[in-house]
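Task: sequence design from structure.
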């Protein structure tokens, strides 16, 4: 659309993108959700309450639309712009609390481009790999504060060396030894200084990891959680419970401490790895939902239009952000691997898919639309 200002209207090289009015969808979607919830005024909890906080996540190319255009629209509607005025019929509306942006992600040194087949579509990816493998890579190596390059070699390394050999190995050997030797979570006997140190490290991580998430430092947060995983693996290797068959009380204590650390690490990693978090919860003998997941539901239009899909979910249940003591005596079964080790051959296979001359292309869909699209 042309810029409605003198001296700019006739400039063919200057236009305001669709994001000028598309950002209104944040508010209209909230109002629509409230209508569906049975409480048409529920949206005001986020838009009219001064105590509410609004965080907008996006790539850096969308910053201007959320830090300039959207606040300008909200200020104007609320009568708080330079020209004054009165709020519209919805009343005063809250401005964004924070705009959280990431840098750009490239792929094998090239800019993502669907027209050039340098693109990953999520459904194609999930046909070959686990969702948490991709979530882990983006969280730990994504473009949070600088441009980052996705390579299949690095994806393979992160999956095999960190998820499988690190976190997955800790879960598998802790649960496996406890299931084999006790058939359940063994009780803890007298704790040593080493036992207490690991338990305190895991408990303290709720504050450090949680604080980093609150400040939108996702990469540092998951790195800190994985540091605790490393401490737990070191503890298990140092204590060597597999050598304690003549001292089952001590073996049980070590495994109890290790399993408590596994439980804590699982909660710390749940925001990043929700699919595997549910599996680990069940391997520890847990029941019910640990990590609530969203779902896509087709709904009827409230104003008589065509039906459409919405993303929704029930997040009233699930884990709490605190250390919860594990239950001694809870039955344990021999575990199945939480993560799948990938064969090195996948690197060449996926690179071949990126060749425009090949028959297929691996394609990750856009999380946010490019305003120039």
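Answer:
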């Amino acid at each position: 659309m042309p810029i409605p200002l003198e001296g700019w209207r006739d400039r063919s090289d200057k236009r305001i993108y669709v994001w000028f009015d598309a950002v209104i969808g944040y508010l209209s979607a909230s109002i629509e959700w409230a209508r569906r919830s049975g409480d048409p005024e529920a949206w005001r909890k986020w838009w009219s309450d001064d105590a509410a906080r609004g965080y907008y996540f996006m790539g850096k190319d969308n910053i201007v639309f959320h830090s300039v255009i959207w606040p300008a629209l909200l200020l104007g509607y609320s009568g708080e712009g330079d020209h004054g005025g009165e709020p519209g019929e919805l009343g005063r509306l809250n401005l964004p609390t924070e705009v959280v942006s990431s840098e750009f992600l490239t792929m094998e040194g090239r800019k993502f481009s669907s027209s050039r087949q340098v693109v990953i579509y999520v459904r194609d990816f999930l046909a070959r790999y686990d969702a948490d493998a991709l979530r882990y890579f983006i969280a730990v190596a994504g473009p949070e504060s600088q441009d980052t390059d996705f390579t299949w070699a690095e994806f393979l390394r992160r999956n095999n060396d960190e998820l499988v050999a690190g976190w997955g190995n800790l879960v598998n050997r802790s649960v496996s030894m406890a299931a084999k030797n006790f058939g359940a979570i063994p009780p803890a006997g007298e704790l040593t200084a080493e036992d207490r140190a690991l338990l305190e490290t895991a408990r303290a991580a709720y504050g450090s990891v949680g604080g980093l998430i609150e400040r939108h430092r996702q990469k540092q947060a998951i790195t800190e959680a994985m540091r605790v995983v490393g401490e737990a693996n070191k503890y298990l290797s140092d204590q060597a419970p597999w050598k304690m068959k003549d001292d089952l009380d001590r073996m049980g204590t070590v495994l109890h401490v290790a399993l408590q650390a596994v439980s804590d690490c699982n909660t710390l990693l749940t925001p990043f790895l929700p699919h595997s978090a549910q599996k680990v919860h069940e391997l520890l003998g847990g029941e019910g939902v640990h990590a609530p997941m969203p779902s896509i539901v087709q709904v009827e239009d409230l104003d008589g239009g065509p039906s459409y899909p919405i993303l929704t979910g029930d997040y009233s249940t699930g884990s709490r952000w605190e250390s919860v003591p594990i239950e001694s005596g809870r039955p344990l079964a021999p575990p199945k691997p939480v993560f799948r080790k990938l064969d090195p051959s996948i690197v060449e296979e996926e690179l071949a898919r990126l060749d425009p001359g090949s028959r297929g292309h691996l394609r990750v869909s856009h999380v946010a639309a490019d305003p120039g699209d």
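The radius of gyration is 25 Å.
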